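Researcher: Quick test of sequence recovery. Tokens follow.
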């Protein structure tokens, strides 16, 4: 299985055995706020514009992946186990600006055979979208690092 993101705000889960997505999460990052100007509200109904998916990244050898947009959050998703395909939202990471790229690596564990490891997320955040200058935010062009701590077996009980 693999996932794709689109400018319509949808994240699709694909199988190599089918030509169509097996699961679609529409408006994964929400929609732009509605206009507050009175002149714009008098126009015929304009459908809401979704936040497009600007970055996707999978955590290797796990059922986790991350998606990002300009909505102010990086979202962490987990694949569903069982026969029903899909994925569910696990966590949000707040970020200010356009997230133009994501990368993930696992930190080495103290225990030799431990399956639970901390994850480091690197996000390329900018003032503008990667492919154009049609929108600008008051943010800095930086690489932001976030550490996601692994849950121990004791904290699950």
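Model:
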């Amino acid at each position: 299985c693999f996932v794709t993101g689109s400018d319509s705000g949808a994240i699709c889960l694909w199988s190599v055995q089918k030509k169509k997505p097996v699961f679609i999460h529409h408006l994964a990052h929400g929609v732009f706020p509605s206009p507050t100007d009175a002149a714009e509200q008098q126009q015929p109904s304009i459908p809401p514009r979704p936040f497009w998916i600007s970055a996707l990244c999978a955590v290797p050898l796990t059922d986790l992946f991350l998606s990002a947009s300009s909505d102010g959050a990086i979202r962490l998703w987990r694949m569903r186990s069982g026969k029903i395909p899909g994925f569910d939202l696990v966590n949000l990471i707040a970020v200010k600006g356009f997230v133009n790229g994501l990368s993930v690596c696992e930190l080495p564990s103290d225990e030799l055979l431990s399956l639970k490891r901390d994850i480091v997320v690197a996000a390329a955040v900018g003032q503008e979208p990667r492919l154009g200058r049609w929108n600008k935010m008051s943010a800095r062009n930086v690489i932001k690092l976030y550490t996601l701590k692994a849950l121990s077996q004791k904290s699950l009980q």
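The two ends are 31 Å apart (CA to CA).
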